[in-house]
Specification:
Radius of gyration: 21 Å
Number of domains: 1
CATH architecture: Alpha-Beta Complex
Strand content: 25-35%
Distance between the termini: 80 Å
Structural class: alpha+beta
CATH class: Alpha Beta
Number of strands: 13
Helix content: 10-25%
Largest sheet: 8 strands, mixed
Order of helices and strands: EHEHEEHEEEEEEEEHHE
CATH topology: Spore Coat Polysaccharide Biosynthesis Protein SpsA, Chain A
């Protein structure tokens, strides 16, 4: 039996970090306020850090910004955990507590919440697109040419901590030991984009997951820690589900 080796314990605090384009969703703002109040009344794991890392960034600078967060966390703080939260997410006040309860520095050092992305399926004939919700849960996969990558995991158990090959960084808790191990093996390139075998670039968050797998660091998602994702969509008759019709009383009009 392999002996369990505990990483150097940290201070138990959680460094919150988010990237922003100078605007945030109201659902995110309200969620943060409720989470801070919850944290004040309980263990103070977030407010004990002195405040979040707030990184101004554009969509084309996600790699650099996420790497900056990781470097600042490791170099400027002693805090044990990092919590990435995107500014278009909604979440419950006890989200961090529940992620921490599911996490473990050795067995589950990286744990994400259940998040969904919006995928365009087809043109709607009226200038818009039809959208569908897609869980950001990924299994390892191979295409017919043998290229290794990620495939969406469409089915999952509810309220369960499951191991996955990949997930997004929209609501992600990371233990210090996992980040330090990746730095030792890859340098400060936690989120640098890697390529599939056919040359296509992998997203920055799945590139992070790929590096986790290379260093044999397990990655999990807690499907009971749910979130919302604020996205634009086109509504039409195809989305309309009318309420039940009133009962026919038999009276004339």
């Amino acid at each position: 039996m392999t002996e369990r080796t505990e990483p150097t314990s940290g201070d138990g605090l959680v460094q919150m970090a988010y990237l922003h384009p100078h605007q945030v969703s109201h659902s995110w703002h309200e969620s943060v306020m409720r989470l801070v109040m919850h944290d004040q009344l309980h263990d103070g794991r977030l407010i004990g850090t002195g405040g979040p890392f707030m990184i101004s960034t554009a969509s084309g600078a996600l790699v650099e910004s996420r790497n900056l967060v990781m470097a600042r966390w490791l170099d400027e703080t002693p805090h044990e955990w990092l919590w990435f939260i995107d500014t278009d997410m909604g979440f419950a006040p006890d989200t961090v507590d529940r992620l921490l309860a599911a996490a473990d520095p050795v067995d589950r050092p990286v744990v994400g919440a259940l998040c969904f992305a919006a995928r365009e399926t087809h043109y709607d004939g009226m200038g818009g697109r039809r959208l569908m919700a897609v869980p950001t849960l990924y299994n390892p996969a191979q295409d017919p040419d043998g290229n290794v990558g990620f495939a969406t995991r469409w089915h999952y158990p509810d309220d369960t901590v499951i191991r996955v090959a990949g997930t997004g960084a929209a609501c992600l808790l990371v233990h210090r030991s996992a980040a330090e191990k990746m730095r030792a093996e890859h340098g400060d390139t936690w989120f640098d984009r890697v390529r599939y075998g056919d040359g296509r670039l992998v997203s920055e968050d799945l590139s992070f997951c790929w590096r986790l797998s290379r260093q044999q660091t397990p990655l999990h998602v807690h499907t009971g820690v749910k979130t919302t994702h604020h996205k634009q969509m086109w509504l039409s008759a195809a989305d309309y589900l009318p309420p039940p019709a009133p009962e026919d009383t038999g009276r004339g009009q």
